[in-house]
Design brief:
The chain is α+β, with helices and mostly antiparallel strands. 39% of the residues lie in helices and 20% in strands. It is built from seven helices and four strands; from the N terminus they run βααβααβααβα. The protein has helices at 12-16, 20-29, 44-50, 60-67, 82-90, 103-107, 122-132, and strands at 3-10, 33-40, 72-80, 116-118. A four-stranded antiparallel sheet has the order 2-3-1-4, with helices on both faces. The longest helix has 11 residues, at 122-132. The chain is globular, with a radius of gyration of 14 Å. The structure holds ribavirin triphosphate (RTP) and magnesium ion. Ribavirin triphosphate is lined by residues 54, 59, 63, 93, 111-112, 114, 117-118, 120. Residues 54, 59, 63, 93, 111-112, 114, 117-118, 120 line the site of ribavirin triphosphate. It is found in: Cytoplasm. It is an enzyme of class 2 (transferase). Keywords: ATP-binding, Cytoplasm, Kinase, Magnesium, Metal-binding, Nucleotide metabolism, Nucleotide-binding, Phosphoprotein, Transferase.
């Protein structure tokens, strides 16, 4: 599988637990490289635009409220099969269903406060990376 990029967000609950380093270590140990990274506090507009595909879902307002409740760390991860690999490391959306040893099993508190986001397809990865990063903010490892 060719090198791929994916967007990862460490959500406000995990930032609040001081787990940024532990979570990034899991990506790096699994062979994913951080090629872009920034910390920011999302505005309501930025969070709504990011999750626009969920706009009609009943949990949308709670999701936006949670994602704007504190700072997040947004990263581009690069590596072999990065999109699926990141989703495997994250575990299921609901931490009660997440496999032992996954990031959500270890750091998430609930389906809302679930520690991390990861792009779910090559199309989402491209859109989400462009949503947060300019081309000159990404530093490929070559
Ligand atoms: P994410 O987009 O954050 O990586 O999570 P995901 O792909 O695993 O889940 P997705 O279906 O895209 O949902 C986005 C976020 O919305 C919240 N959610 N709440 N209450 C609910 O039934 C429910 N379903 C989803 C979660 O915080 C999820 O991460
Ligand atoms: Mg999703």
């Amino acid at each position: 599988m060719a090198q791929q990029r994916t967007l990862s967000i460490i959500k406000p609950d995990a930032v609040g637990k001081n787990a940024i380093g532990d979570i990034i270590a899991r990506f790096e140990k699994a062979g994913l490289a951080v090629v872009a990274c920034k910390m920011l506090h999302l505005s309501q507009e930025k969070a709504e635009g990011f999750y626009a595909e969920h706009r009609e879902r009943p949990f949308f307002n709670d999701l936006v409220g949670f994602m704007t409740s504190g700072p997040v760390v947004v990263q581009v991860l690069e590596g072999d099969n990065a999109i699926a690999k990141n989703r495997d490391l994250m575990g299921a959306t609901d931490p009660k269903k997440a496999e032992a040893g996954t990031i959500r099993a270890d750091f998430a508190s609930s389906i809302d406060a679930n520690a991390v986001h990861g792009s779910d397809s090559p199309e989402s990865a491209e859109r989400e990376i462009d949503y947060f990063f300019a081309a000159d903010e990404i530093c490929p490892r070559g």
